[in-house]
Amino acid sequence: METDVAIVGAGFGGLGAAIRLQRAGFTDFVVFDRGDDVGGTWRDNSYPGCACDVPSHLYSFSFAPNPRWSNTFSSQREIWDYLRSCVDRFGIRPKLRLRHEVQEASWDDKRQRWLLRTSGGDHTARVLICAAGPLSDPAIPDLPGMDHFAGTVFHSARWRHDHDLTGRHVAVIGTGASAIQFVPRIQPTVGALTLFQRTPAWIMPRLSRRISRLEQAVFRTVPGAQRAVRAALYLVRDTMGLGFLHPAVNRLASRLSLRMLRRQVNDPHLRDKLTPRYTMGCKRVLISNDYWPALTRPNVEVVTAGIERIVPDGLVTTDGAHHRADTIILGTGFHVTDSPIVARIRGRGGRSLGEAWTPSMHAYRGTAIAGFPNLFFLLGPNTGLGHTSVVLMIEAQLRLVLAALRHMRANGIQAVEPTGDAQRRWTERVGQKMSGTVWQTGCSSWYLDTTGRNTTIWPGLVTGFRMRLRRFRPADYRIVTAGNTPNEPEREHADAV
Ligand code: NAP
Would the pTM of this model clear 0.70, i.e. be above it? Predict the structure, then answer.
């Protein structure tokens, strides 16, 4: 099948792209997703307690406000419902190709088209928007003996709802954003919970509350009310988040967190284990009111020794201790800097994005990549945020994508890709902004790739990112028109960083 634009992924990124394209008059597109429903990470993560730690009014599309949010921080179910409702609200359903896993997407330079091999058949497209998302493929730790475990193992993003945890001996590996949400939920039900912690998290209070019916009515009926709340939240979150970079603000926030720890955990030995000893903010600051209290319950043990191996009836740690378990839940995060989709995308000359991004990811404005014509990558390198809504970044990228498509349409352009030079300049600028920040130097985290570069976080205000992606700058691109040779030598992309 031939289509103008192919979108990979039907989560926030893919649906946002579809709606923005549709509204801008680019109606010849399809959205592929390997799942049997839309929603992406909000479809896949259904673990108990799954919720967003960004305010609902911000964690939604600017063009699709939802006056019915029931809580200031929405639950997974509500966000998933919101995304599903957007499909019908904007007439996207006919464009969806669910249960279509993109197995390969390769650029055909002669035809100036992307050739897509999917589990539901082959397609061609002029433009490819990759919205597969950085949190779509669970990271499963390579622990010796896992195959011999006699019980049940699952990842938090593939929760086994058919596996009743009542009375079970459960081992939880990982103490990140997901684990701190499901641990307090399962603790009252399980017989025993052993939590394997590698790094204690900085945790702040979760200041959430129900949104009253009156407020919902105001958002429904008073023009601009919800927009005003969103604008206020945007400003507060964007500036507050960056405030963490200031040593005084950081010290104050760290003191607040430690005070909450002292209040919630009496046992000095446990408190010592849970005390973070690195600069706040170098990995995601978590929010929870019930995680630390749950760890004080008699059926919970926090283990800080490393996991040496898995045995049929439990886990053995490096101190030789055996920890009985019949269920292992992996709260071990995702393949963020090494997503499997990148091996499946092949640009000019057959080079895969995975190869281009080895050992480190590089992209022009986090969105386009030298050597990969007409490819736009949502939530690409250095577009992640720890302090506010990533939907804002997606929308900023979509603005650039639309600007590019409009420019191409107006000028009869077949293909665009950033020049190696433009990509290099962008990478250098991001590197300079990152240098010396807590995200680069604070601790080892999944923000950093194997070279030690932070390729995930945007080191600045969202506002700054949005400004930089407002316009399509033709001079930064290698441009192909019918019968025209590109304005950049062929070999350039190979050594672009
Ligand atoms: P994560 O933040 O990457 O945390 C993974 C945890 O597993 C960390 O504690 C890590 O320890 C530990 N771990 C990984 N491999 C291990 C191993 N081999 N042995 C022992 N421990 C291991 O993953 P996540 O909690 O699933 O969250 C991922 C991201 O999802 C978040 O950062 C956030 O962006 C997003 N998320 C967002 C929300 C939200 O409310 N918006 C909610 C949930 C998740 P180390 O810290 O030592 O590496």
Answer: yes
